[in-house]
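fyi for ur records
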Amino acid sequence: MIINNLMKIFLLIILLIEIGQSLLPVERYVHSSVLVEKRLFFFGGLSDHSPKPANSLDQILYLDVSKPFNTVNPPFEEIPNTIPFGSSYAIAFPNSQKNVIYLFGGITVNVNTGLDDFKSILYSYNLETNEWTIPITSEIAPIRRREFSGVISNNTEKFYAFGGISDQIIGTPNVIILNDMNILDINSLTWSKGSTINAPLPRADFTATLLTNGIIVFIGGRETNALLDVDINQLVLYDTTIDKWSSMTARGVILENRHAHSAVLTPDERIIIFGWCRCMNKTILNQLAVLNTKTYPYEWSIPQVSALNPAPPPIQLHSATLIGNYMFINFGRNYQTPNPELQKPYFYILDIRNFTWVTQFEPEQSPVTTNSIATVPIINTSSANTSNSTAEKAGQIGIILGAVSLSVVVVITVAGFLGYKFYIKKKYNSAIPTAGQIQT
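which gave:
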């Protein structure tokens, strides 16, 4: 009884500490995100409340998605080893065999000066050592770019990056909108180019979603140097298995054009898009739309969203990740809120089973099968009375010793936990003089 009560007190203390000390990240947008096993990583981004002189962040955050949590107090953690530069508009993708995350493209700046700090278009982050390196690649690497999109294929073991903008911000004298397909073999780290036959017009701020049949579906965005809105019903397709471009006119409901949105693929091959930005401050009625890729041609629909919880505000330049039955919407900017002081570290979760915005995340539990063997106790009746008295005394002594030991453990653990949380919180709120160093 004593031990049980102490355990309850211990768990309550830890819970209260966690609630009071949880990391509250600053708002950000155009960051990079990637899911690796049970951790959802967030790299960099731009923020009006950056702890460094530059508004470009060098932080690495992650969420442990193996445990339930509430969006009111999500358990963000910060990795002490920062990115060696402020990163924004980049794409993060994993290589599970090498246990690394690659960071490709985007803007790289010195977080203390805000000046361009370009050294490589590709960086590697080791998940075991937390070290950053510049990987050695072969063939001609792509030119610098931002506002592009890309996907990683487990079948071909290649990374595909298309389009984007190259301008003065990243060292190009003139503004160039791109329409090249760049392919990286993640095992040999060899760059190559995709076909240009029937390739779409130069495009930026779109989404790219890889279907299980190897086709990449490009949705929305802006095209040509005039950056005109792309007709969202005119889909561009790229077949990674045969290096071939094609196009398709989607049927179904008519959607408003948009860019700076996000997209995820569901297990039944539906593409869910969310968020928007539209030229000339035009409004969009439906932030959420679904593209069914099992029909031909593909078909748009507007899901009936439950009114159980409020829907997110109009968000753009965020990230979207599908985790089990939940679509995570993280960070971004409220398109209708120009005041940066009113921007928030947005976090919304959509249950894709019934299209309900929820505040509680419940991870899927893997079924556990146990083989139990029933045992029959054998009691020696001749010595039962004698052993009962001895066992009772021993049990009392054990309870006392256990309670004392557990109390000591509780005190030490709580003190250590508080110290660790204080260190993390102090580190997060304090500017670090220099970013991490590149190891070559």
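Residues 8-20, 367-440 have pLDDT under 50 and may be disordered. thats all i got for now
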